[in-house]
């Protein structure tokens, strides 16, 4: 890639960014746009324009621990790159610039950027020692920053868990088996509260959704009708609306008893082989969740209960070995998909070295192709992860995120690097087939220029769009003008949704990997990485505080995965600039990963008793309310559920503490 | 090896076995020998000559679950071989005998045994399909028998744990940290009973051992003195004995207050960073052991408490990461030792094919060298396992047994097989270096003859010596005549010790591996394997019921390891007779291992709550007695410990159940 095309794309990205920033400043101040730029504060009933210099505590209060942990991740990457750049840029750039390896080979034209990279160092030059030591520096900086971050996140998680009020998931566990009452009463005579058997709600849910649809239609028709009464000349429409109102009322009257009947049938006859068990204290639930219950493990499994809103009801009754087989099949599919996707990506990256493509195309096409490709994947991966039989939405998101990470690393990063190298030197390889390895080394700095442009596109255009919220604004305006009639519909039109870590984190991990891997070979990439994570931190702190509303809270459960993948990126990097003196580094990285895992991981996988016990001092929780949170909406429409006695088939009564079941 | 030398060794082993059997029948009936042939029954106060047709329950009652599980292991191996042999012998032997591949190559002389093996089948003969199908048959037989055995052992373990009375280890856990009381009282306010801080007892133990030495000397001197008073003419000796009695009495008087003082100092000032915590019920201890306690995992670890008698007191205070580092170092040493031992073993096995060695030497030397070599290892491996920092003796034994297994498989089995193959065909390899693989295949049946002799030696001579107990009898007789003076000394002279699984199991595993691997190539080995495990089962059931006294009970904790190693042996075997059509077999074996592990393993690693809870119905255990069982003898001499108040520094008082610590 020519220096001119690099400057062309970089300049135009910067221009887009500036325009989007100006748009943001202008639009976010305009009245009526608060619901687009400050929806999170509007929902919480806070003044949109207050709350500026926010601490981490404020982020946790507004957006939860998960958002704070995402910011820690961005800050960690930023910290690693800043500390690395402080040494690498002033040392390595002069070392590379003053050598002149590239000038020696005359048949290829090299641009000025490549002269600042390791490609300009002569073979076996003592200057390469500088690059070797730089790799050590980057590795130790990464260890230091990652260790501090893990400690910090572990602390955040413990504090948030201990200080929050008791939630339904804190006193519950999931189990697999019918007739759980006797079993759990026997094993936990003093702490068992009540259990809820999972039922097959497909039919009830269908009726309930139909009912809800008519209810919404009714509200909408009534709003239109009352509006049309004040205006005149829409008589035909009014008549139609009256028909609609009558029709909806009839349907609702018809469906309500149908739903009630179906609810009874469901609770009595459609019980599944799974249950939610509620205990009378957090400590009891935590101890029970972590204790092996049965001699034959697969006959009685217990696991942590997720929040009611993220419970994947239909995955609960799946059996132990069924889940394993499903996981296995999904992994095979993911593996095949990774291999299969390699083909188009390699083809795209080959374009980056084709000389006959126009300069403009050369500047944008590969990057845009990459981004479109990566936008298609997440939904597919979420579907696959759900199919594994995972019982909680946040766990599904984590699983999909992991698969996305493998995709990105193998296909985008390794695919582009190796693909473009092979393509560029295809003819040379034809002549002497044993020369692949040295060629790969010498053409790496060239793909560095490609990734430089890619990173710039991501942060200038990506963050510009994110902060300015131009697309959500347009969608909201259009919906409001042409579609929305009721208050509820307007609210839904500006609802900002959640931050969406599932796709954010793997994308950011790709940037970490790219910047780390090229940091020593072409140190000029570091400032780009710093800009990416610096801007990212600023943008997403703003979005976390003012825009997105989290769908669930996992107390930073994602962190161990982020940590492991950072170390994976570091190891790829350590293998990337391969030399015999590098050998201790991957070994050290594995040791570091092991130590961190041993010290921190378990408290992310389970709840430590000391965290659970710190709840004790507070008031006794309202167990019945916590228990009811798990009743799905289709079984809980209206206030019929207050007298739960009719549903005793599926749900047990609170255990009387004086009775012994031994 | 010539057929004559094989018959020579086989015949002489059989002769030795017959002689030893006759000795056993004669000696075990003679009066005065009960303590050598029935020590276990003598200790339990039962009539030595009763109790013949014993069921598994009787084995458990007499020798514990571990002995029963060892017999299950022998029975499992026997079952696999019998079921395999029923099909393989009548089918494969005729198939091999009627072909004549070996007759074609005239430069080497083959014996009749080799004509019954796969080596006699022509290359690419359709007869090889028979051998392929035989491998499938053996694999499925192994799956079936192993699955039944694992279910059975799991059941044995659960039943024995649930039905035995509450033992100290059932209500205790080990932890690492000073000042455990506050912490555990806080986290387990209703179930915490008491804790005991681990102290550095080196000094106290030294004084106590010295004291015990003088006490024993005193008893011995008194016995000799009272004996000499009735006899006459030993006046000089009597005078000397009186001196000894006085000296010992003085020393004891001097040491007793010294020990008492040291005990106080130890309990107050030598507290270590570890403790035993006792709970008021088995369920509570089980749940606490399995629950994560601290946010930072390595700061507070909890683990299952072993029986008091197998607690390795000095390993308790070792830190989490110290243990990991020690384990790592030990693994490196074991790895190096495995590689290092390869050298002499390869050398020994090379002798087996040297034509210039005399026939007699050829028949015995290699087998004897192997057995001597294997007898040297266990102590070294036990030492290494203890150095890892493992806190319980039975765990150390399991760890050593695992290391021994790797040693035997890599060095003896693979070493002998590959070594002798390489040596035999050394000259041929010199000519055409690419021919190692086909040579290995064709010379395997020859090492099969070697292993045949080896297995025969093991069961004829090994079991003969085991059952006849000639060596323990001679030692006991000699000691009794020349050394023993007191009752205690005589008891110690015939004390049979424990069965010693640590070395038995890996040796048996070697036989399983050998017989499995050669079962299809040279089916004639199967009857030898059947004899080995059949005789073994008979001999050790006798020994378990009448001789050995177990040192500890691990409720068959060894079984998962045996199971995994059986599958490992199966996979080696499936790779051993390598062919493309074999590929599904190792995959199936891994799947089988995974399923068994998922279903059964956890209940061997931890105690399931349903097993712990079945104790509930019984009477409340005497917690103080269970707690006191953990006091080491050097801190508990005499009855001074009954008023434990003076030791309150190191040991907490029982928690009053009415006080709340929240």
From TrEMBL, chains A, B:
One GO CC term on file: plasma membrane
Major location category of this protein: membrane
Residue ranges occupied by any CSC1/OSCA1-like 7TM region domain in the UniProt entry: 326-577
Organism, as annotated: Spirodela intermedia (Intermediate duckweed)
Keywords from the UniProt entry: Ion channel, Ion transport, Membrane, Transmembrane, Transmembrane helix, Transport
UniProt GO MF annotations: calcium-activated cation channel activity
Upper classification of the organism: Eukaryota, Viridiplantae, Streptophyta, Embryophyta, Tracheophyta
Domain named CSC1/OSCA1-like N-terminal transmembrane: residues: 5-148
Protein name: Uncharacterized protein
Residue intervals passing through the bilayer: 6-27, 68-93, 128-147, 328-351, 363-384, 404-426, 448-471, 509-535, 576-596
Membrane topology: Multi-pass membrane protein
Chain ranges of the CSC1/OSCA1-like cytosolic domain: 175-315
Matching PANTHER family: CSC1-LIKE PROTEIN ERD4 (PTHR13018:SF100), PROBABLE MEMBRANE PROTEIN DUF221-RELATED (PTHR13018)
Location within or outside the cell: Membrane
Family the UniProt entry places it in: Belongs to the CSC1 (TC 1.A.17) family.
Coiled coil: none
């Amino acid at each position: 890639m020519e220096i001119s095309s690099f400057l062309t794309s970089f300049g135009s990205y910067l221009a887009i960014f500036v325009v989007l920033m100006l748009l943001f400043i202008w639009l976010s101040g305009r009245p009526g746009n608060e619901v687009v730029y400050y929806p999170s504060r509007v929902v919480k009933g806070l003044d949109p324009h207050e709350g500026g210099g926010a601490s981490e505590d404020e982020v946790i209060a507004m957006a939860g621990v998960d958002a704070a942990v995402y910011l820690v991740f961005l800050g960690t990457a930023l910290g690693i790159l800043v500390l690395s750049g402080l040494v690498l840029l002033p040392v390595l750039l002069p070392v590379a610039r003053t050598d002149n390896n590239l000038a020696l080979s005359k048949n290829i034209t090299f641009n000025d950027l490549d002269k600042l990279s390791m490609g300009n160092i002569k073979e076996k030059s003592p200057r390469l020692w500088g690059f070797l030591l730089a790799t050590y520096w980057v590795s130790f900086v990464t260890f230091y920053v990652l260790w501090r971050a893990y400690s910090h996140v572990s602390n955040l998680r413990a504090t948030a868990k201990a200080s929050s009020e008791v939630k339904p998931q804190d006193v519950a566990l999931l189990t697999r088996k019918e007739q759980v009452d006797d079993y759990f009463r026997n094993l936990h005579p003093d702490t068992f509260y009540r259990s809820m058997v999972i039922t097959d709600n497909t039919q009830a849910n269908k009726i309930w959704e139909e009912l809800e649809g008519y209810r919404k239609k009714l509200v909408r028709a009534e709003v239109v009708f009352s509006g049309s009464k004040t205006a005149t000349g829409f008589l035909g429409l009014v008549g139609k609306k009256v028909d609609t109102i009558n029709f909806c009322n009839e349907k609702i009257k018809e469906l309500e008893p149908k739903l009630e009947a179906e609810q009874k049938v469901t609770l009595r006859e459609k019980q599944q082989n799974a249950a939610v068990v509620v205990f009378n204290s957090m400590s009891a639930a935590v101890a029970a969740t972590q204790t092996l219950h049965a001699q034959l493990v697969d006959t009685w499994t217990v696991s942590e209960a997720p929040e009611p809103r993220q419970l994947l009801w239909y995955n609960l009754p799946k059996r132990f070995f069924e889940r394993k087989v499903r996981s296995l099949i999904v992994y095979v599919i993911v593996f095949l998909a990774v291999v299969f996707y390699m083909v188009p990506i390699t083809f795209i990256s080959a374009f980056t070295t084709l000389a006959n493509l126009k300069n403009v195309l050369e500047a944008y096409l590969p990057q845009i192709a990459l981004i479109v490709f990566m936008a298609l994947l997440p939904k597919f991966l979420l579907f696959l992860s759900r199919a594994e039989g995972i019982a909680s939405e946040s766990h599904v998101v984590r699983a999909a995120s992991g698969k996305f990470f493998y995709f990105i690393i193998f296909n985008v990063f390794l695919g582009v690097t190796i693909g473009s190298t092979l393509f560029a030197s295809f003819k040379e390889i034809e002549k002497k087939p044993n020369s692949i390895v040295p060629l790969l080394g010498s053409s790496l700095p060239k793909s560095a220029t490609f990734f430089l442009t890619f990173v710039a596109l991501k942060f200038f255009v990506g963050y510009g769009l994110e902060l300015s919220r131009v697309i959500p604004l347009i969608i909201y305006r259009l919906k409001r003008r042409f579609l929305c009639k009721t208050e509820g519909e307007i609210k839904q039109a500006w609802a900002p949704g959640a931050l969406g870590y599932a796709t954010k984190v793997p994308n950011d991990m790709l940037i970490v990997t790219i910047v780390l891997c090229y940091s020593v070979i072409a140190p000029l990439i570091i400032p780009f990485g710093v800009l990416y994570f610096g801007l990212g931190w600023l943008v997403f702190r703003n979005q976390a505080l003012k825009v997105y509303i989290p769908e669930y809270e996992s107390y930073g459960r994602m962190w161990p995965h982020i940590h492991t993948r950072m170390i994976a990126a570091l190891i790829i990097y350590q293998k990337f600039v391969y030399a015999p003196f590098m050998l201790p580094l991957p070994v050290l990285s594995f040791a570091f990963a092991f130590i961190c895992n041993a010290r921190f991981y378990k408290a992310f996988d389970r709840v430590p008793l000391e965290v659970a016990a710190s709840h004790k001092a507070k008031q006794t929780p309202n167990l019945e309310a916590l228990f009811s949170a798990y009743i799905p909406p289709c079984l809980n429409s209206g206030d019929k559920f207050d007298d739960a006695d009719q549903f005793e088939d599926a749900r047990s009564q609170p255990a009387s503490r004086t009775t012994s079941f031994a």
